[in-house]
Structure formats: structure tokens, C-alpha cells
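Form 7-S
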Amino acid sequence: MGQSDRDLVLAIRAELAAIDPARPCDRAAESIGLGSALAAREAAVARLAVRLGRGTADAGRDLTDRRRTKHVRVLDQPGVPASGAAGSFDWASAPEHCRFAYLRGRFLARGSLSLASSRSHLEFVVAPGEAPVLAGWLAEIELPASWRIRRGRGVVTWKSSETVAMFLRRIGAGASLLELEARQVSRAMRGDMNRVINAESANLQRAVAAAGRQLEAIDVLEADGRLGEQPYVVRVVAEARRETPEATFAELAERLALHRSSVQRALERVERLALHPDDEDARPRRRGPNVPSVPSVRLARGGASASG
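Output:
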């Protein structure tokens, strides 16, 4: 994750930590989410804990077991459950605003956000027993997450950029989230533009290679006099190709007032006859005595096929 992405993550967390809930129940819910054993490495999270009336765990507490997440250090006393654990919050009876206040505190205490490789990855690192409970709660609010046990800790994870953005928006992120979404849109547009450019480049290379083959075939047929024996449509298409080597089938068809398929078949006939002089299908066919010839004007308007 680059420095700009790290700065954006810190800005999102600082914005969330700066929210001062107006409702007492929200303040209590967020305080429970932060937990009683929080030792914040971020000043904004430490200030939030003080505002909510809860000091950090570094203040004169003799704690023996220390574990770190990406943004905070969690200090637990052996045998004493953290107050932010799932069992200490009454999710079932809590209103929606209290639920999101709790989740905001839980994210600031136990959550991490990564924006590496143009993808959003958000996870909570919690106690093993809390992981399935938290994942179930998130599924209830239509934010389903996966969970697993990793090195003795429960990990609840989102890897969908849309889900991560929705969660951050619902817990209170604003301006910083707009910056995140703007970056994601910019990256998506660059990716789409690169794909379009690559596709156009590949198409152009194929068109140039095909035009080169067709010009060589036209020269071969003209050198041995077989081009003049071909039907009218084949001759005019060959002449147009020689005059405009860069033109596409559609451009040649528009110029000659022919169907695109007629132009394509005519040029395929030229290539096939140059490569296989004895190909019966590529030879001009004689018309029967009772079959009238097709006027050139009709041919020019697209009334004849490439095979004559």
C-alpha cells in the first residue's frame, strides 16, 4: 500500500474518531465497541476514548498478554473478557443507530483497512468466539462478511470495495470516503481505458497485417494477369484496397457503395487465389448463354456478391 493510500486510511479513521455522538445510548454503544482494554497508537482514537469517558489501558494497568492489530494494541488480562466483546453488547434490542455506533467503535479498536493493489480489504481482528457472532450481526444489516480463525484470533473480513464503502458510509465516514470512491472510480476508468487501448491496438495490428497480405496478393494476381479475369466487384475492391491500404472493410464498402460482406469476400477471394492458383472455387465462372450479365451500375450499388 502506497503512502497516499496509507494517508487516506488514516484520514478515514481520524474522521470516524472525530464523530461525537449526540445520543447517550450511541456514546455508550461506541464505548462498548472500543472496549476497556484499548491502547491506541492513534491520537484521534485515544482522544475519542477520553471523550467517551474511557481511558486507555496503558494507564497504570498491569497487563501481561499483549496482542497487536494493524492500528491498535489490544491489552487483555488473562481470564478477563474485554468489554467490547460481542457478549457485552445487546445487539438484538439495540436500535440501528446504536448498532452502527458500536460497529464504529469496534472498527476503530479492532479494525484495519487496506487499499493495496487498487482493492479494498477491511477486517476485524477479534476473539475467536466473537468472530462468528460479529459476522452474523453484519449479515443481519445486509453487510455479509466471511470469518476464520487465524493464529488463534478470529478474523472477520470484507474484500468487496462496494461493501467496504457501504460500511464506512453507514458508520459515519464522509469526505474521506468520497476521496476513496473518487480514487476507485479513477482507477477503474484507467483500467477500462487501458483495456480499450489494448484492444484497439490489437485490432489495428491485425488490420495492418491483413492489408499487407491483401496488397501482396493483388500484386501477384496483377502480375500474372489473373486479376483482370476476376468479376467486376473483385476488381474494383482490389483497386480500392490498393489506393487506400489503411481503410477498413466498412470504409471500403461505403466508398464503393457495396455491402461490407461483399468487400470481405472479394478480398478473401484475392488472397485465396494468390495462395492457391488451382483452387476451383477461386476461379472465375463462365455464365451460361441464357444468363444475362449483371450491369456494372448494379454491381457498384452492392447488388452483386464477391463471387460474381
